[in-house]
Amino acid sequence: MARIIPVFTQGLCRVSDYGRAGILRAMSYIDYERINTAPLHTDPFDYLVVPDCIPPAPLTKINADYPLIDQPGNLSTEELTYGDEFASFLAEAQGPMLAKAIGEKFDLELETNPTTVTIRKFCERSDGNIHTDHRSKVVTVLFYFNQDWTETTGQLRLLRSSSNIEDFAAEVPPIGGTLLAFRRTDHSFHGHHPFVGERRMMQVNYLRSDKLSLLRQKVDRFGTRSAKKVLRAFGSS
């Protein structure tokens, strides 16, 4: 069983080593039956959308313990401090039950694939550009946490091309409790119109099993974050 080492800071904890087994709990934060019954869409690539995958009561607890974030960008769990409920949800989201449920939808065995997790609270104007996700990824899973969403921007679109954000097969508002999962391919284009403000999201990526893929993803992600820091500094000067 994986070790769990909570690091307590002002009543909050950061799980520095929770492993795939996660934190043992009597309840689940994720409604697996909704995943099992959600239709798998294939146009323009394989994806599923699961509203209320996190039921309202667990969602409230997760949001109460959401990471303390005061900047835009996708941040790794090692960089963040958060409460016990979020830590438990995070462990479940990296555990074998979700990997099995998602894998069955895409006809894949994901239980042994390595994962990465990034968490966001704020969007900036440069977010949402059309892309396919990194080639090291097999399946991307997004969880959304905003209690409601009234904006017309910031809604993720699943696109048929790399050049036209208006040519989309589906548009997913980032409403709390929603799960969106898709198979990464060379044509899994997605993006959204620019939005500036609070847009809570957690991304779980199932990666190819070779260590080189994981290393490449970390290097490329570091490059993207560095470039955005330069743009922010330039924009504020």
Essential attributes:
237 residues; alpha+beta; Jelly Rolls; six-stranded antiparallel beta sheet; three-stranded antiparallel beta sheet
Number of domains: 1
Full CATH superfamily name:
q2cbj1_9rhob like domain
Series of secondary-structure elements, N-terminal to C-terminal: EEHEHEHHEEEEEEEH
Structural class: alpha+beta
- Can you tell me the residue ranges where pLDDT is under 50 for at least 5 consecutive residues? 1-25, 227-237
Shape: globular
CATH topology: Jelly Rolls
| Largest sheet, spatial ordering of strands | 3-9-6-11-5-4
Percentage of residues assigned to helices: 25-40%
How far apart the termini lie comes to 50 Å
The total of beta strands comes to 11
The helix count comes to 5
Radius of gyration: 17 Å
Task: Compile the SSE list and pairings.
Layout: E1 6-9, E2 12-15, H1 32-37, E3 47-50, H2 56-64, E4 75-76, H3 84-93, H4 96-105, E5 115-123, E6 137-144, E7 156-159, E8 168-172, E9 179-183, E10 190-191, E11 197-207, H5 211-236
Antiparallel strand pairs: 1-2, 3-9, 4-5, 5-11, 6-9, 6-11, 7-8, 7-10
